[in-house]
Amino acid sequence: MNSVTPQLEILDTDRADRYREVVQAIVARTADRFATVSSPTTDTPAPELRERIAAVDLDTPLGTAEAAADEVDRLFSAEAVWFHHPDSLAHLNCPVALPAVAAEAVLAAVNPSVDTWDQSRIGTEIERRAVRWAAETIGFADGDGVFTSGGSQSNLHALLLARQAATSAPAVTGRRGRPALDDLVVFATASSHFSVRKSAMVLGLPEHAVVDVATDPSGRMRPDALAHAVADARREGRVPMAVVATAGTTDRGCIDPLEPIADVCDLEGVWLHVDAAYGCGLLVSPTRRHLLDGIERARSVTADFHKSFFQPVSSSALLVREPADLRRAAWHADYLNPEDAEEPNQVDKSLQTTRRLDALKLWATLRASGAAAIGRAFDTVLDVAALVHEHVRRHPDLELVAPTQLSTVLFRWQPDDVTDDEADALVAPLRAALLAEGRVLVAKTVIDGRPCNKLTLLNPGTSAEQVAAALDHVTATAGRLHAELGAAQHAAQTTGAAR
């Protein structure tokens, strides 16, 4: 029997009809998944998932695009985590806006890169316009920015710019000349995103460079403590490089008081970066925009549109108040950004070279629905979170661990007859048991030294009643696990006594 060697099908003029055929088929399959999914994920054991992947021979092709698409559906889609499901409550992943999904399909097919103007042309102009819109929404009248892969890269980029600013001129450090990297200090809180400390490491700063500023009982940075920390650093001969205020901490969902923090930064001449990766949806909120008062005084801002703007991953941006600040990290290469070029080459502003036109997704969403619709959807999420907080507070078997200004719910299963040690010991097994059955997904974290479970609500289609029903299942599972652990401990004690 003659065998036919599979050929690589490149999307081009001759294959437009093939493109339509293959993509429509996989879109239809995915739509069926959306229509019929009954839980946020499956109960397939992790070892079985690994075995399925290990059994695939990547050196033996299936032969056709249809066969590969069928395998993608069976292998990935059938076992995916579905963030649109009301019981998907674990992480900062959102269901996505349909216009953005349509734009994503265009991006995949056209495959533009917005590092240089001649690779994207109109795409560059779309990103620049979307950036101007986002900057103006913050309150940066003449601001600029660039789209990034996510909040971690946006924070890294901001701290790089702050580092360059801090080391570009002599400072009083007890040494001559410009400050050394060992002199630089970044002020944040213990609740700041982990990328702040990781960025400091990447930027060559010492381990002690990031100073944790004291917080209030809600986990928000205390401006008075910040002022003292900056003064202490200066007395030690160190150079304040940046203050990172968080507008939506990952765990507590709290917002640092931006106005008084900006007062301290203005007085001390320190770069203020606001990490609004989570809370950026408040920028377009019709009822809660005031929670970000003062953000317009920042030097730079991180905004993750793939969180509270309901965009597909990835869609983040670093936005700056002064366009000149972006040039602090610019690098020249004749083949990318020639000095005599009249076109705007975005590689001047970005840490990346090849870069997707992620701005097109936000553009499509704004054009289809408008910013107010995004804000109303985010408000709905926050309203539901407030109702769930009240439900947990009143629940006889649940403890509300901390309040939030956004959409996290920190809780612990702890009926009156359960000790702190017993409740703490149950947090990780509870999360693991729920994940294993795939019915309700929750996360775990540590607050004030004690573990707890966490919900993160980002689905405007999920009601408080649905979350309450999910918590009923969580509570029943916790009670069962506690009984099983107690029985196992009793058996072990009895066996030990018998010996």
N- and C-termini, Cα separation: 70 Å
Relative helix content: 40-55%
What class, by secondary structure content?
A: alpha/beta
The value of Rg in angstroms is 25 Å
Major sheet summary line: 7 strands, mixed
Give the strand order, joined by hyphens, for the main sheet.
1-7-6-5-4-2-3
Mean pLDDT: 94
- Supply the CATH superfamily name of the largest domain: Type I PLP-dependent aspartate aminotransferase-like (Major domain)
Low-confidence stretches: none
Number of helices: 15
Count every beta strand, where a strand is a DSSP E run of 2 or more residues: 11
Provide the β-strand percentage band.
5-15%
Oligomer: single chain
CATH fold-level assignment of the largest domain? Aspartate Aminotransferase, domain 2
Number of domains: 3
The CATH architecture of the largest domain is 3-Layer(aba) Sandwich
Set down the secondary structure blueprint.
Elements: H1 16-36, H2 46-54, H3 65-75, H4 98-110, H5 117-120, H6 122-138, E1 144-148, H7 151-166, E2 184-188, H8 194-202, E3 210-212, H9 223-235, E4 239-246, H10 258-268, E5 271-276, E6 300-304, H11 305-308, E7 316-320, H12 359-368, H13 371-394, E8 398-402, E9 408-413, H14 420-437, E10 443-447, E11 450-456, H15 464-498
Parallel strand pairs: 2-3, 2-4, 4-5, 5-6
Antiparallel strand pairs: 1-7, 6-7, 8-9, 9-11, 10-11
Helix pairs in contact: 1-3, 4-12, 6-12, 7-8, 9-10, 13-15, 14-15
